[in-house]
Amino acid sequence: MADQVSTMCEQLVKAVNVIMDAETSQIYRLEALKFCEEFKETSSLCVPCGLKLADKGHSAVVRHFGLQVLEHVIKFRWNNMQQQEKVQLKECAMQLLSNGTHSILEEESHIKDVLSRITVEMIKREWPQHWPDMLKEMEALTSQGESQTELVMLILLRLAEDVITFQTLPTQRRRDIQQTLTQNMDSVFSFMMAILHVNVENYRKMVFVNKHEAHCRVAVAALNTLAGYIDWVSLVHITNNNCQLLEMLCLLLSEPELQLEAAECLLIAISRKGKLEDRKPFMLLFDDVAIHYILSAAQSADGLAILVERRYNFLKRLCQVLCALGSQLCSLVGSDVEVEVPTNLSKYMEALLAFTTHSSQFLKSSTLATWGALFRHETLSKDSVVVEKAVQYLRACMTNLVKIGFPSRNNNPSCMYSCVDFDSDEDFNSFFNAFRAQQGEVLRIACRIVPLEAFQIAAEWLQYQIASPIDTGDTTCKSKTAEGLCSILSPSVVQWDAMTIFMECMVGQIFKSLEEEKLPIDQSMELLQAVLNYETKDPLILSCVLTNVSALFPFVIHRTHFLPQVLYKLFQAITFEIETGQDIKAPRTRAVKNVRRHACSSIIKICRDYPEFILPCFDMFYNHVKKLFSSNATLTHLEKSSLMEALVLISNQFKDFAKQKAFLDELLASVVAEWTSDEMKNVLWDPAVFLSFVGADQVVLEQSKETDTASLNRARLSFHLYAMLGVVKRARWPADLEEAKAGGFVVGYTSAGAPIYRNPCTAQFLASLPNLLALIRTQNRLFMPENMSRLSETFSRAHEMTDMEKNMVLGLTQPLLDIHDTPVYKTNLERMQGFFTTLYDNCFHVLGNAGVCLQRDFYTIDGLAEEITGSAFVSLDHVPDHRLQKCPLSIVFAFSLTCSRVFVKQLVQSCPQEYYDSLLCPLLGPLFTYMMQRLNVKWQVINQRSSINDEEEVCQDSQVTQEMLEEQLVRLLARDVLDLLSNCDVNSYDFHHMSDIFVEEDMMMDSVQAVSPAQPTEELTELGKCLMKHENIYMTLLTLSFTSVSWKDTTNCHRTASVVCWTLLRQVVSGNLLPEAVTWFFTSVLRGLQMHGQHEVCNFALSQLAMLIYENLRPRYTELRAVMIQIPNINTEALDQFDHRLMDPSAQKVGEKKRKDQFRKLIAGTVGKALCQQFRKEVHIRNLPSLFKKPKPDKDILNSETLGLAALFASTNDGL
Predict the structure, then answer these.
(1) Does residue 585 sit in helix, strand or coil?
(2) How many Å apart are CA 972 and CA 780, to the nearest integer?
(3) Taking Cα atoms as reference points, which of 276, 358, 378 lies closest to residue 314?
(4) What is the pTM assigned to this prediction?
(5) Cβ neighbours, 10 Å, residue 118
(6) By three-state DSSP, how is residue 609 classified?
(7) Rounded to an integer, what distance in angstroms lies between the CA atom of residue 1100 and that of residue 1174?
(8) CA-based angle 769:770:772, to the nearest 5?
(9) Which tens digit of pLDDT belongs to each residue from 178-193?
(10) Is residue 128 reached through a cis peptide bond, with omega within 30 degrees of 0 on the bond before it?
């Protein structure tokens, strides 16, 4: 036996060395690995060989393998071992703990880890029933030295992780161990505290002796172990002895070697939830000693010239500790437990402010939620300390809003920290954008507390920026467009940008916080005058100037004589160009385009929010627009339509139908005339002529520009659609009914007494509608093969998605903005792609807004359903998914790409109910039928692609990306279709409270109870009831809903299964359904479980749906039992019992929860496993005799036999 063990050990040592040798060939390594794995699985010498290899005389790698062998034996062979063998192995393991390791500073961490795993695996199988003295044996081990003490701490930590955190045990074993731990927690906690205290004291005493490191190592292990228990033990153990543990942790914040682990423990403790009275002792951390150590550590936060990662990690934890402490403060102060505002609140806020002013952008961002909570708090926000700190916070925002700290640069101390926190400039840019948005929220809340101080800070900052010369920065920051211009990273630009955000936040709140007589109107007018007088030729700074003009405009309504100056400034910016000298204009860059668009947006915003104040200037405004249109100013189609949109907004204040209609007739005369001309009709109705008209069939060299005719034609088309869209979006009747009646906007009343309005733009829209529908039809036909072949070589990819669209679909972060400003379009192809995409979108925007704008005038158009079907649904087989996503959903519910979900609701609400049958049903029926067929085909292709496992096939990165893109497009299209279906049919449910990304499994598990009601109670909408009258449409909706639960999309599955499926099926469940249909519905749900059952939320929703179908239809359809019998590993006896209770009225009933559990066990065989679990070797841990009395089984007293009072309370009665 000994010889066999020695021989085998020699072979194993050689194999392990071969595996770990970097020079070993792949073939030899695989053979050695196979030998080692076969030994672990089959050899009867595992225990003796494992013990021999674990001897301290071997190398760490060999010892680790030997210990792994022992762990494998315990995990997979323990149930088959004799009791004598178990005892012997346990004693050997304890011997290894006692003297099987080197000293604490010499031993490898992975050896300690595997030793702790071995012990914990035995504890999980034997404690407490068969190993009652385990805790005493662990305590005895600590007396043997620092190495053993550290190992005991590791064992206790891993035990807590396996039992409480990861729950890697069967329910009964986990309950036994957890309850035993809880019963012994006083002694366990005291034991760990004593270990920590002793080793900290010894560490401090021996700080100049070599042995102090050993005590430090044990103290770190004790802190880590405490962290594993603090999260779940009763709060009493944490707050015992006047919060002795928390006080000790605060003291350790000053120990460089222990402060990180101490902060971790402190964070977990302070983050605990529970009853407020139980958390009241946490306020002791605001006492002098504790707050002194916290404040000292925080104020030394930025004192290091060189970044030390461990120190930086400690600062992150300490910052989180402060934030958690603030959360407890906000919960306790002002609550029923009567906690006063702490006297040391000022010191706490100084510590918080120290992190808010730290160089690290990450640390700054970590404090925002706490500042927001303090400023929102009803009691604390009125405290003088908080008010004083609010002003200091506003001052800090002047620095924090500035976008600096890119990891690729070295122009600020924050860059050093960004190198640790962010992988790239793109990563930092994405973070900072979110960070600044959060800052804006907190800044607005702070401005409510100290509005006048906030105004003063903003005013000083703006005046400083106006007075400061422009600093373009070093050569890496300067713009390459023209000499003396800035880039987005230039010092002046980042300062102007930050100040502008501050100004916007402040002005928005000052009007809400102060009465009109207290508003600083005179000072704000001085500021506005300074801004209006400021002149700059830099487009980036001018954009900030325009934002400040818009931000300060609310003050202008109190000084209306400033209005012409404001409008002049904005009109001047609409025609902004960069001149490079000698009246030569530089190429129009993105910055220039943004300035011009910014000016247009500002005018629209002013006209939208303050039309009554602009109305006196209408003639001046209109004349200036006409002058711009007729001059040589190179306005783009978007700029022209924006000015028209602003005019329409002002014209709504006429409140006179005839006058407004006459104005709109004049405004749109040339647009409507050209749009309805014979020439345009010829273009819009014929795909070949259309392609020639826009230049898509012409070959254009990149070095040369396109022919002027084609680009002008595209501009004409774009302008017509933008103009129509602006009018349809903005033209409205007065909101006040009396004003509307007086102005001639009301033409009658419905039978319910609601007024029927008419829109002054109706005539123009109706005249334009035929060609609009023709353009939609033509664009769909562009994807037909004969028209695709007409595209020139230059524009052969014109219908493909742009890179930006692809990134949006894939959820990739957008690249960092080009530091040096570039032209808007880089290639002719991009220009054409942008044109086709925008044109396609705007067609549906116009058609979509028509329903809300015209209302009854739109829905009463003769043959509207046929017209839309004959244009929007033409040639859909050729339309790619990224276009189709925009097309049918947007058309049917008249809204387009970006927010079809919101617009769908608006259209359904605006469409009179009497037109459901004539308009919506003829559109929805064919749409849902077609989309179901198309999506089914798409998902079949995706599933086939996933199931193919051809190892010889090597996919290129571009091919993989394309497949991912196609799959995500199908997923998004499917979500839009099902959103449309649910909004049509289901009341009282908003799917878009849920995220539109894949829900991670752990998040899904957390939200099971929250998002899955016990019984869906949603009812059909009026539109749903209308659709139900058409059997073919209703069956299509049912088929689409039940098919979708097995598509590869967990979000769709949960949404549809939790509400839609049963809401639809319940309407027909009492009718005469075909047995084949009932079987198909049920098997569809089971297929969904096979696909998504590993996700807890999907499992819950699908199981509930399956049970509802089974319970409601099983009594009439025996075919459902035949389906159940086919489920793998089903317990037929349990199925018989379930059926008996279901179908026999006299049978004993069980509670709903128990019934659900029974049904879930019946269908458990259908639940699919995640890929990571499919080939995992199962670990089986047997239950031991229970230590605790089993709870009495649940029983429904109302349905049980009558019991007398004596019998009901009798201890011998087992009926309850």
Answers:
(1) strand
(2) 20
(3) 358
(4) 0.86
(5) 27
(6) helix
(7) 21
(8) 60
(9) 999 999 999 999 999 9
(10) yes
